[in-house]
What does this fold into?
Amino acid sequence: MPKTIFTGANRAVVDVLRQARLDAGLTQQDLALRISRDQSHVSLIEGSQRRLDLVEFHRLARALDRDPVQLFAMISAKLDHHRVD
It folds into this structure.
């Protein structure tokens, strides 16, 4: 199991963003190019080694051609359903 500095609630964020990336048919490299970062940046996020602020979340959502409000609603529902910390 990989090391992570975050657990619970952050996992819900990562799961939704990763699935959105996969649904868009993008690799980590593809997404990284869209946000002018390198692939390791996306890998750190998806590996729960880096938390996102709201501005970065919004940027990622737009890069995935998704509505940030809808993605956040999915995260919120997941958090409510699983009651994670």
Q: What stands out?
A: The chain has one domain: 9-82. The mean pLDDT is 91.
